[in-house]
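Module 6 notes. Inverse folding takes a fixed backbone as the condition and produces residue identities as the prediction. Think of it as a translation problem where the source language is geometry and the target language is the twenty amino acids. Below is one complete input and output pair. Work through it position by position during the lab.
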């Protein structure tokens, strides 16, 4: 969309737009956690604005997701359910979104900053005379009268936070990182409106089709992990990550790392937690040999429980840990592994 085109758009129709809409992402009918996290933050912002919270579910045999969106905070759920929408493809999904946005007129639209969410939001933004703030780590709204979305994200090589505003055009759109926001407690007594969006044949007209999905056997999904065992420079080398993996296996967890461990080449970048890595929100994270620099903690501080193992009692990680073990990880970890295996009947 050129700047010239943007300037031609009238700014007077802003008041026609109301409410916050979250595009629900799923794989094979299982929602990505980020969808419910965005509904949680969307609920808080919608209440501040006195506006409805909407969700959009696209796919095949996904009616249960519409109900789940209500349980996690949505007032109205738009659903387009058709065999042609079984697999995510950019064009069909963006056509459905554009039609729903035209009908629902949300003032704010949120997507997960996942591979799919980024692709979809970017494609939609090229069709709308508005902007898109990508990869946000904080979202808020100014209340009446401006009702402006405050979309914040790291900028300038992550050295500062920028808050980006879209003052003149609607909807205001953003993608937000998984793990940053807290989902609401599910409330099965909540009720909401489900609006069926008719499927039009042209939605499915596209040159691409999905032939197969090949799942990587060792794919790492820190964002969705409930238990993370993370290691840092204190491990002293790559081989000690084997100990972390042993504990992760005993607890059905996933191994994560600080940037120091990644930069040293001990583990792949996809395991990195923090400002320039993944933002995680597990039920439990064990941080071993990690000092607790702010660039690391910003990516994991919202875990339900943080256990830190560090030989330095002054390590900053202890300031955010729920439980701290001051000691040598080479002695502590084997004991925890042995106990975990015993309790799970693996010893
Ligand atoms: C722009 C920018 C972005 C960044 N992004 C990230 C990011 O995304 N993620 C990230 O992690 N960092 C990031 N960093 C780097 C960050 O500032 C820290 O340098 C890094 O987190 C340190 O990693 P660490 O805690 O593993 O290592 P250290 O800070 O060196 O800490 C090692 C810890 O191990 C402990 N230790 C040593 N031996 C033992 C032992 N035997 N038993 C128990 N404890 C032991 C030590 O007491 C120490 O506390 C970023 C920096 C910048 C400038």
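Target side of the pair, the amino acids:
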């Amino acid at each position: 969309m050129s700047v010239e085109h943007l300037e031609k758009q009238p700014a007077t129709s802003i008041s026609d737009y109301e409410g916050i809409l979250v595009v629900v992402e799923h794989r094979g009918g299982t929602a990505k956690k980020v969808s419910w996290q965005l509904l949680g933050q969307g609920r808080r912002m919608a209440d501040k604005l006195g506006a409805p919270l909407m969700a959009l579910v696209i796919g095949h045999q996904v009616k249960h997701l519409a109900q789940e969106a209500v349980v996690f905070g949505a007032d109205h759920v738009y659903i387009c359910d058709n065999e042609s929408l079984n697999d995510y493809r950019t064009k069909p999904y963006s056509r459905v979104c554009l039609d729903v946005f035209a009908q629902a007129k949300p003032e704010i639209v949120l997507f997960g900053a996942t591979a799919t969410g980024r692709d979809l939001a970017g494609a939609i933004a090229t069709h709308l005379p508005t902007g898109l703030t990508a990869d946000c780590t904080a979202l808020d709204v100014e209340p009446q009268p401006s009702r402006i979305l405050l979309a914040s994200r790291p900028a300038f090589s992550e050295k500062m936070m920028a808050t980006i505003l879209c003052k003149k055009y609607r909807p205001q759109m953003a993608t937000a990182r998984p793990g940053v926001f807290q989902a609401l407690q599910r409330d099965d007594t909540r009720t909401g409106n489900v609006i069926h969006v008719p499927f039009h044949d042209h939605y499915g007209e596209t040159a691409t089709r999905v032939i197969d999905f090949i799942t990587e056997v060792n794919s790492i999904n820190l964002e969705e992990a409930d238990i993370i065992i993370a290691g840092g420079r204190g491990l002293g080398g790559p081989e000690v990550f084997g100990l972390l993996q042993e504990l992760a296996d005993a607890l059905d967890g996933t191994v994560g790392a600080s940037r120091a461990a990644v930069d040293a080449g001990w583990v792949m970048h996809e395991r990195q937690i923090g400002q320039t890595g993944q933002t995680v929100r597990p039920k439990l994270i064990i941080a071993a040999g990690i000092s607790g620099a702010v660039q690391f903690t910003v990516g994991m501080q919202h875990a339900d429980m943080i256990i830190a193992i560090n030989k330095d009692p002054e390590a900053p990680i202890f300031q955010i840990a729920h439980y701290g073990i001051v000691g040598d990880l080479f002695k502590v970890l084997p004991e925890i592994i042995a106990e975990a295996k015993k309790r799970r009947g693996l010893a």
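Reference fact for the lab report: Confidence is low (pLDDT under 50) at residues 1-12.
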